[in-house]
Write a structure and sequence with these properties.
heterodimer; A: alpha+beta; 12 helices; B: 2 domains; 6-stranded mixed barrel; 16 helices; 50% helix
């Protein structure tokens, strides 16, 4: 292993190696950070919402253009639910106030004691008139679903305390760490006017309506209350039998239009669409970063191949002399590969420092997450392999130089 | 001499096509990535209403209760209560003022063949149109009288007017919304300031503007529901009336001043108003009352997304990589011409002449890279537009960005060419001539 001759020849002609090492360093720094961000965004977009088999679930927003008063609206809603239940292929229907990942819904301050002055958390509040646990296939970790007697219909604006509440597990852990939540009292609001509600169940997971990225993305509660009378429309979320979603959507729409005496506007939202729309920007960023990463690798590889070819040309005479003195082809190849590994290692070392520096900048200015060292290690490995593969071609060509031709002057 | 060097530069591009293609492509890709992300940032942080952006001011109060007060941790509430909006409207401060909130209504088209459909709208007071320089295609804003009594009048956008009435002038025609017949009094021309600074608290920050405008008083009279965010931090009475009486914040407000010098007076008035309200038992917190002009408002509302900044930074890092790569390629290109340089120098050219010649050649590559980079940048912008409608509204190049593309490309090429050019100048003529 002739490291010293390689090093001394590199020292004598520093420009080329420095340029390659610099390219490797820059690429590694950018690649590690870019891939980290891609990983994060993809992970965020893959988070389960809590709804089981999202393919089968959708929602219909119904708006009637004429209103005959609050009581009529309530009766209409109940009729519509019955109509929807009768559609063949419908497994379950629920009249709900908001949908997860929809960027549209209600946040409420919650507390665990009446005398608190600061809220314990902010929870996304799902109001429902039927069983969300059944329609969305939510998994109960503790306790039970609502009993039929616990559902109440409340005229718009009048505050009636809900009779029960189901809490998501992440929120329960935050409010009552280490204790079972069932049986505890949740307060909506604080002080004298807070509403005290007994917790009857804890579900494994239900994302909030904004699907926030941090831990608060699963702070949700479900209350068995339906507010009516504002003519604001109703949302019916439904589960179709597997594979029948499209047909059930068409039939449900038709059934609602037929059953409605006056003009009605319907809007269908499937959970798939909600998910795609919510994460559209994140996925677009991931793709952009993936494209940039591929281009980075191509350009760096091109740079290494180019430089290696150039040196081979410049050192034809030396190679010829070595071969004439008895070096084997494999010796020449090994020499060049080793030289390349040395340069790449210098580049990798610089790249790790640059990568950590770039990440610091992103963390402080753009609130990105810290880079785990694994990405840098993986990047280093990628560039070592890339360097060897890129240098192999020129190294092989160097070995193929005939000593007789090379040692001939000019 | 420069014209000669320029011609030499163009000729030398042809001499080694592979190397040329690599160089131009590398530079073009780097420039395209940087310019496309920069263009998006540029459009996002542009001034949407430069002719009066320092004369339009948005007030912000803190009407939340004294408990749960964390001065360091909380974002201020940028919307107003109905009570405050009403008082500010009556104040007479500034040349004009407007209060508004976003609504979504169902239009029942006069043509029975068209199904009713949702549109996003705004419910501002009359001064909105004059304050934000909204251009009218037909008609004009509703009258003062209509504004005060909340008449059933509506101003439509050009697209919706065409959808409902085709090419005909719809002024005076009726359209049914909110379960009542409304009279069309105006149709606005294409108007989409980027960002949608007047109402950043609700709806998109970029993209299309509203399709429909009804008077603020009319929307309140019809109890039209809000299409935006509402924040209630204390108990509210039931119904829409309860919200009007409460400390819930859901409205946006703007003042227009004669000149930006009047701002101090408005601030004083605002502070006095807040002090009066405090005596009445409202505004329990001691947060200072703020006024923001349009540029400050855009910063306050975090209009430029972090992801866009991230893309721009990484793109410039990518450009740096392309630059280093180009240095290597230029070194390779210039090193084979050592004999040519030797002859020139032997014939009397100074080092400076060689320097100028090769730097001009680098600039030629920069120009070629700029042309290709521009084409690639258009492609990149088209791809980035697929992200969302908001990005599609800002992913475009204006003249300044076109100029930036070429300047960036030539500068990058010149920078990359410095080292190889310096190397070329160091060639000793004697050695070169000897080995012929």
């Amino acid at each position: 292993m002739e490291i010293r001759p390689i090093l001394s020849s590199l020292m004598r002609n520093k420009t080329g190696p420095i340029l390659v090492a610099l390219q490797v360093a820059l690429s590694l720094a950018i690649l590690a950070n870019a891939l980290h961000i891609v990983g994060e965004r993809r992970a965020a977009a893959a988070r389960p919402s809590g709804i089981d088999d999202e393919q089968a679930v959708f929602a219909i927003d119904v708006n009637h253009l004429r209103s005959d008063g609050p009581e009529q609206e309530l009766a209409t809603q109940n009729r519509e639910i019955a109509t929807l239940r009768a559609v063949p292929g419908v497994v379950s229907v629920a009249n709900v106030g908001q949908l997860p990942m929809s960027n549209s819904g209600w946040n409420t301050s919650v507390a665990i004691e009446r005398k608190q002055t600061r809220e314990s958390a902010v929870a996304s509040t799902y109001t429902v008139a039927d069983s969300l646990v059944q329609t969305w296939g939510l998994r109960l970790a503790e306790g039970r679903d609502f009993a039929p007697g616990e559902f109440i219909d409340v005229p718009m604006g009048s505050r009636e305390t809900p009779r029960a509440v189901i809490v998501a597990r992440a929120l329960a852990a935050k409010l009552w760490p280490g204790q079972p939540a069932v049986g505890k009292t949740l307060y909506i609001g604080m002080g004298e006017e807070a509403m005290a509600i007994p917790v009857v169940g804890v579900i494994e997971r239900l994302q909030d309506h904004s699907a926030r990225i941090d831990e608060r993305g699963e702070f949700s509660i479900i209350v068995p209350t339906r507010e009516y009378g504002a003519n604001g429309g109703a949302i019916y979320t439904m589960r179709a039998a597997p594979g029948q979603r499209e047909r059930v959507i068409r039939d449900a729409e038709a059934a609602l239009r037929n059953a409605s005496p006056g003009p009605v506007i319907l809007k269908i939202r499937t959970v798939d669409e909600l998910r795609k729309k919510r994460y559209r920007a994140d996925m677009a960023l991931s793709w952009t970063l993936v494209v940039v990463s591929v281009l980075l690798l191509l350009i760096t590889a091109g740079g290494i191949v180019g430089m290696a070819s150039l040196w081979v040309n410049q050192r034809r005479k030396q190679i010829g002399v070595r071969r004439a003195l008895g070096a084997k082809k494999s010796d020449i190849v090994r020499y060049f590969i080793l030289e390349n590994v040395l340069i790449t290692s210098a580049g990798v070392f610089g790249g790790v420092l640059l990568g950590v520096g770039l990440n610091q900048l992103l963390v402080s200015r753009l609130e990105m997450a810290r880079l785990p060292l694994g990405y840098l290690a993986l990047g280093a490995l990628v560039f070592w392999v890339l360097g060897i593969v890129a240098a192999y071609g020129p190294a092989w060509r160097a070995a193929g130089i005939s000593p007789a031709l090379a040692t001939r002057s000019a | 001499m420069f014209a000669y060097y320029f011609k030499l530069g163009v000729r030398s591009l042809r001499r080694n096509p592979v190397l040329t293609v690599l160089m131009v492509l590398t530079l073009a890709v780097g420039v395209a990535a940087s310019v496309s992300t920069l263009a998006i940032l540029h459009m996002m942080s542009g001034d949407p209403i430069p002719q009066k952006s320092t004369r339009l001011l948005a007030p912000v109060f803190d009407t939340r209760p004294a408990e749960n007060f964390d001065p360091a941790g909380e974002r201020p509430d940028e919307q107003l209560t109905y009570i405050d909006a009403g008082n500010l409207l009556k104040s007479g401060q500034g040349v004009r003022r407007t209060a508004m909130y976003g609504t979504a209504v169902v239009i029942e088209p006069p043509e029975k063949s068209l199904q009713p459909f949702w549109v996003e709208g705004m419910a501002p007071t009359r001064d909105f149109f004059a304050m934000f320089d909204v251009p009218f295609l037909h008609g004009q804003a509703w009258s003062e009288a209509d504004d005060t009594r909340g008449a059933d009048v509506v101003v439509l956008s050009r697209e919706i007017a065409e959808k409902l009435y085709g090419d005909a002038n719809p002024i005076g025609r009726q359209v049914r919304l909110l379960d009542a017949p409304f009279t069309v009094v105006g149709v606005i021309d294409k108007w989409a300031p980027q960002p949608r600074f007047y109402s950043l608290q609700s709806g998109n920050k970029f993209g299309v503007s509203e399709d429909l405008f009804i008077p603020f008083a009319t929307a309140i009279r019809h109890k039209t529901s809000l299409n935006g965010g509402i924040s209630c931090s204390a108990r509210t009475d039931p119904g829409f009336e309860g919200i009007l009486r409460s400390e819930c914040t859901w409205l946006q407000f703007w003042f227009e001043l004669e000149s930006s010098a009047d701002r101090a007076d408005l601030q004083t008035w605002l502070d006095n108003y807040a002090a009066e309200q405090r005596k009445l038992g409202r505004l329990k917190r001691s947060t200072p009352n703020a006024l923001y002009d349009v540029p400050e408002w855009l910063v306050q509302m975090n209009v430029v997304g972090k992801d866009n900044k991230l893309s721009a930074w990484l793109a410039f890092g990518f450009l740096a990589l392309c630059l280093v790569n180009t240095i290597g390629l230029l070194l390779a290109k210039f090193s084979v011409r050592a004999s040519e340089v030797g002859i020139r120098r032997a014939l009397g050219a100074s080092r400076k002449d060689i320097f100028r010649q090769f730097l001009t050649e680098s600039a030629v590559i920069g120009l070629a890279g700029g042309v290709l980079g521009l084409l690639l940048a258009f492609g990149a912008l088209a791809l980035l537009s697929m992200q969302s409608r908001a990005i599609a509204a800002v992913a475009r190049m204006d003249l300044s960005m076109l100029a930036v593309t070429f300047v960036l490309s030539v500068l990058a090429a010149l920078l990359a060419g410095l080292l190889p050019t310096w190397r070329a100048c160091q060639v000793t003529p004697a050695i070169q001539l000897k080995s012929q």
